Amino acid sequence: MNVWPKGMKRTKSRVAIYKVLEAASQPLSPKEIHAKINQGDFWLSTVYRVLGQFEQEKMILRIAGMDVNHTLFELNRHEHKHFAVCIGCHQRFELDDCPIHEDVHVQAEGFEITEHRVEVFGYCAECLEKMRLSKVKHDA
Ligand SMILES: [Zn+2]
Ligand SMILES: [Zn+2]
Predict the structure, then answer these.
(1) Rounded distance, CA 14 to CA 115, Å?
(2) Residue 133 sits in which domain range?
(3) Do 75 and 101 share a domain, yes or no?
(4) Quick one: 44 and 65 in the same domain?
(5) How far is the CA of 122 from the centre of ligand 2 (A)?
(6) How far, in Å, is the centroid of ligand 2 from the Cα of 134?
(7) How does pLDDT run across 87-114, given as a tens digit for each residue?
(8) Co-location of 60 and 33 in the same domain
């Protein structure tokens, strides 16, 4: 647990949620996190509350989805990564490069950029194939 802040108490729910995020290879929704830790002793509202605390401590990153119900969270591994999100299945695919260049210009004098997020949406090959097949069926 290399990013656990000194002042944060290791409660059962915090540790359980942290472990799920640590083991995850891709960002998870609060519901997915809840499903992974739930042995009947945690409420979904607890997951939301703990995620809020983690976010405040910058232990995790929020990845906005197409709407609030698809907000995802991942451990802040202090890596510089961006994802493309499939609108069909909500899978995340890592981008090769950062599309933001250092000379990005903000139309406000004196503005200092400290971080950035990039959101790319589309359809993965699997979803495209599914759509193509359903269209063929529909046309036939
Ligand atoms: Zn897809
Ligand atoms: Zn970037």
Answers:
(1) 26
(2) 83-140
(3) no
(4) yes
(5) 19
(6) 36
(7) 888 888 889 888 887 777 889 999 888 7
(8) yes
